[in-house]
C-alpha cells in the first residue's frame, strides 16, 4: 500500500466492479468467444471479420463517439447492429440480431466467480459503511452474488453517462445527503474512469493497481494505491 496524501475520515465507499472485485479478463474472453460463435451461426457473413476485427471495430467506435466509450452495453449493441448492416443485413433485422447476440454475451459475461475473501470483505465493510457500486460495465450484480452488499448499483444507460463523466457519481449524492464528497472513498482499477472521475467530484480515491492498468496511465495521483483487497480491511476495519 502506497499513500500519496493523507486519507481523510471515510464515511462511505464506492466500488468499481470489473477487474477490481474479481478477475474479469477470462470471463470476457469466454463471453467474446461464445457470442462470436452465436453471431456467425446466425449470420454466416459475420465470419468475414474475426473476433479480433469485431473488437477493433468496437474500439474505433469508442474513439469516434465518446458517449459510447463509457457505456459498454450501448457500445456493444452499436457495434453489432452497425456491423451487421454493413454486411448487408437490413436495419430492423440487424437491431434485433444485435439484441439477441448481446443476450448471449450477457449470459456468459455474468459467469463470474467471486473469491470467498471478497465476500467476507464486502460483508465486513457493509456492516460499518454504506457501500455502492459504480460500474461502466453491464455485469448483473444479483446474478454474480454481490447485489446485497450494496445500497445502490449505478451503471450507464437511459441518458446516464459512465465514468469519468460526473453523472454516476452525481447520482449517488442525493441518496446520501449527509455525506460530503470528501467523505466518499472510491475504489477502482482504472486511472481514467475511476481515479480521475472520482477526484473531479471531490471524492477520495484508492487505486487497485493489480487490475489491468499501469501507473503510467494515471492522470492524477490517488489518495493511495494498493495491491490486494485484504489491505482495505486492514486499513478501514481497524
Helix and strand layout, with pairings?
Elements: E1 2-3, E2 12-15, H1 25-42, H2 51-64, H3 66-69, H4 72-86, H5 91-109, H6 116-126, E3 131-134, E4 152-154, H7 167-172, E5 184-188, H8 191-200, E6 204-208, E7 224-226, H9 230-236
Parallel strand pairs: 2-3, 2-5, 3-4, 5-6, 6-7
Antiparallel strand pairs: 1-7
Helix pairs in contact: 1-5, 2-4, 4-5, 6-9
What is the C-alpha radius of gyration, as a whole number of Å?
19 Å
Low-pLDDT segments, ≥5 res:
none
Largest sheet: 7 strands, mixed
Average pLDDT score: 93
The strands making up the biggest β-sheet line up spatially as 1-7-6-5-2-3-4
* Tally of alpha and pi helices: 9
Helix-strand makeup class: alpha/beta
What is the chain-wise order of helices and strands?
Answer: EEHHHHHHEEHEHEEH
User: Distance between termini?
Assistant: 15 Å
**Global shape:** elongated
Number of strands: 7
Task: Kindly state the percentage of residues in helix.
Answer: 40-55%
* Beta-strand content bin: 5-15%
